[in-house]
Amino acid sequence: MYCKYCKKHTIHEVIIVKPGKRGKLTAGSRRKLWNIEHGYGSTPYPMFEHAKRKVKNVKRYNVIYRCTVCKKAQVQRRGKKAKKVEIIAK
Ligand SMILES: [Zn+2]
After folding, report:
1. Averaged over 35-55, what is the pLDDT?
2. What pLDDT was estimated at residue 31?
3. Is the pTM of this model over 0.85?
4. Of 16, 25, 22, 27, residue with least CA distance to 63
5. Where do the domains of the chain lie?
6. What is the CA(5)–ligand 1 centre distance, in A?
7. Given 62, 74, 82, 88, which is the most exposed site by the fewest CB atoms within 10 A?
8. Confidence band (pLDDT; 50, 70, 90) for 53?
9. CA nearest to 78, candidates 28, 2, 19, 5
10. How far, in Å, is the centroid of ligand 1 from the Cα of 35?
């Protein structure tokens, strides 16, 4: 892969960043909790059942490419969407 720091093609190490767990006190999760208890928008009933059903098993994985020459990493954010990610070593 092309390394923008070395300005040439080098061998890169591939690291997959697994999605971390959501924090308990982040703004989003607090809002979600509030929605579960109080309903959302025009739905006055708790949307806990809705929230339960929405389990996605296709996730977007961030991929880090680290140059083996200069050890600098390039992050591909919002990268590939996949059910399962594995590295095939050459
Ligand atoms: Zn490099």
Report:
1. 62
2. 73
3. no
4. 16
5. 1-19+61-90, 21-57
6. 5
7. 88
8. low
9. 19
10. 47
Which has more pLDDT, 12 or 58? 12
Closest to 15 in 3D by CA, of 68, 83, 54 = 68
Distance 7 CA to ligand 1 centre (A): 7
SS3 62: strand
Q: Which residues pair with 9 in a beta bridge?
A: 2
Cα 58 to its chain centre, rounded Å, is 11
How many whole angstroms from 17 Cα to the centroid of ligand 1? 20
State the Cα–Cα distance between residues 85 and 18, nearest whole angstrom. Answer: 9
Instruction: Report the separation in Å between the CA atom of 15 and the middle of ligand 1, taken as the mean of its atom positions.
Output: 15
Dihedral, 20, 15, 74, 17 alpha carbons, nearest 10: -10
Of the candidates 51, 53, 58, 60, the one whose C-alpha atom is nearest the C-alpha of residue 78 is: 60
